[in-house]
Amino acid sequence: xxxxxxxxxxxxxxxxxxxxxxxxxxxxxxxxxxxxxxxxxxxxxxxxxxxxxxxxxxxxxxxxxxxxxxxxxxxxxxxxxxxxxxxxxxxxxxxxxxxxxxxxxxxxxxxxxxxxxxxxxxxxxxxxxxxxxxxxxxxxxxxxxxxxxxxxxxxxxxxxxxxxxxxxxxxxxxxxxxxxxxxxxxxxxxxxxxxxxxxxxxxxxxxxxxxxxxxxxxxxxxxxxxxxxxxxxxxxxxxxxxxxxxxxxxxxxxxxxxxxxxxxxxxxxxxxxxxxxxxxxxxxxxxxxxxxxxxxxxxxxxxxxxxxxxxxxxxxxxxxxxxxxxxxxxxxxxxxxxxxxxxxxxxxxxxxxxxxxxxxxxxxxxxxxxxxxxxxxxxxxxxxxxxxxxxxxxxxxxxxxxxxxxxxxxxxxxxxxxxxxxxxxxx
Length: 427
Known about the structure:
Helix content: 55-70%
Structural class: mainly alpha
Strand content: under 5%
Number of strands: 2
Shape: globular
Number of helices: 18
Number of domains: 2
């Protein structure tokens, strides 16, 4: 009985945090803001950043400490329970206390904006939040996903009934984060939109003033997460793409078994993410193919065609994508009024007419923004084409496996497979 209480205690703590935050949100809704008949609109509420640099570096220190503890629990102690405890802490600190900001996922946008805009200086804390989890991924896999990311932690709360997603469906849905990452970098680099922050599905759980659409979106993901573990991490998270890539080159990764694998097959159903690579039916044969890279030129040609085709496609799509920029949208609205007589009545249009800025200046600015999109979009297309091509090519060059092992890119280092392995390390 005590063992069961200890097992589910982290889930209980996470549940209490969610209920507490929901009560705060409900209290705010009990006293709605007054309605004005004069057309008055409330200004957007801003969270004032009153934390000094010392506290920002404190966040970085907490991040490093959480990653170190997760490494100890996942790689050294092989304790799934310990990983859950770190997740509960991370959800409380980086989620509810820091309200999802500062965030390694959102830092992608800060880095992109800094790289392509000389007038923007990225905060050192944001840069460290971007780099440190990737450095740990190079060393020991996706420890950030396992126990430090608050979005992953909140999804662990509902992941009770795991089902295997068909591999073809998994492959199609798994391509979405690559597209999301490419577009998020493009929007941030052009100074148009921080899309990751805008469409953060769990912001409603961490901040009581979030749009209700985001609360609904996050709630739906948690409901789906009852049956499909970590749907956001697997099918949306752009930072997970970088973690996936870096983790494939990790020096020391979580293993399914603590010692030699007995090929007992008990772990086959132990991973809800289908990240366990099965051993080959027969041991490695002496008669190996002379050239395991046979057909590589064909795949190389396919990769180049995919990269070129994707680059051309996104180049032509650039004017549409530039619609994410507020100035481009404003220019289109003004143009519609000028050419078709459709009155421009948005707040941005009203502000434009009273600013003294000419239409020619606005249209020139629109043209420059679209050109920036035309320059950046092909690179996003090349990235997507290369990613798809390499995904198709990699299965043809793998080595023969003699035991069960995790897929280093897709494995979340969560430790759920530990209990399925009967191999124990002798004290």
